């Protein structure tokens, strides 16, 4: 197993409306007739990088088992370029796209930080959109 580099985990949360805008379609609003229980601003997505697929799968499975997320998608073979300790680094990583309730973000962040192998697991997030 390759040595784990002491790089920062990038942890990004995006509100549902922002994800819809990025896809080119406006955010859908539930109609009263649809019976949907979706509340605007209640769903977030977190993006976390991992050093390899084994680590990503272990964290993803634990997050879902602990009911901290409904689903985690793994996107293999991304290239991350970042500054670490004054030096520009480049690594191959796996991206976890974590879909969760906005109310679970603090617990999700704490859990990921507690099990992530990187020396520093940073958390970047957007406040949920109320639109």
From TrEMBL:
Q: Which GO terms describe its biological process?
A: response to metal ion
Residues in coiled coil: none
Report the InterPro entries cross-referenced here.
Ion_tolerance_CutA, N-reg_PII-like_a/b, N-reg_PII/ATP_PRibTrfase_C
* Binding partners and assembly: Homotrimer.
Please report which protein family the annotation says this sequence is part of. Answer: Belongs to the CutA family.
Task: Report the transmembrane regions from the record.
Answer: none
Q: Name one Pfam family in it.
A: CutA1
Cytoplasm keyword on record: no
What domain of life is recorded for the organism?
Eukaryota
- Respond yes or no to whether keyword Coiled coil is given for this record: no
Question: What is the taxonomic lineage of the source species?
Answer: Eukaryota, Metazoa, Chordata, Craniata, Vertebrata
The protein's name is CutA divalent cation tolerance homolog
Signal peptide range equals: 1-24
Q: What keywords tag this UniProt record?
A: Signal
Q: Which PANTHER family match?
A: DIVALENT CATION TOLERANCE CUTA-RELATED, PROTEIN CUTA
Q: What GO molecular-function term can you cite, just one?
A: copper ion binding
Which Gene3D superfamilies does this chain map to? 3.30.70.120
């Amino acid at each position: 197993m390759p040595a784990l580099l002491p790089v920062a985990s990038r942890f990004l949360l995006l509100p549902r409306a922002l994800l819809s805008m990025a896809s080119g379609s406006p955010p859908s609003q539930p109609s009263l007739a649809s019976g949907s229980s979706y509340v605007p601003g209640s769903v977030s997505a977190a993006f976390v990088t991992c050093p390899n697929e084994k680590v990503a799968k272990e964290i993803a499975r634990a997050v879902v088992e602990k009911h901290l997320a409904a689903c985690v998608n793994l996107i293999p073979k991304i290239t991350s370029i970042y500054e670490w300790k004054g030096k520009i680094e480049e690594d191959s990583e796996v991206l976890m796209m974590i879909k969760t309730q906005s109310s679970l973000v603090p617990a999700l962040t704490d859990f990921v930080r507690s099990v992530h192998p990187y020396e520093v697991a940073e958390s970047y997030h957007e406040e949920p959109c109320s639109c």
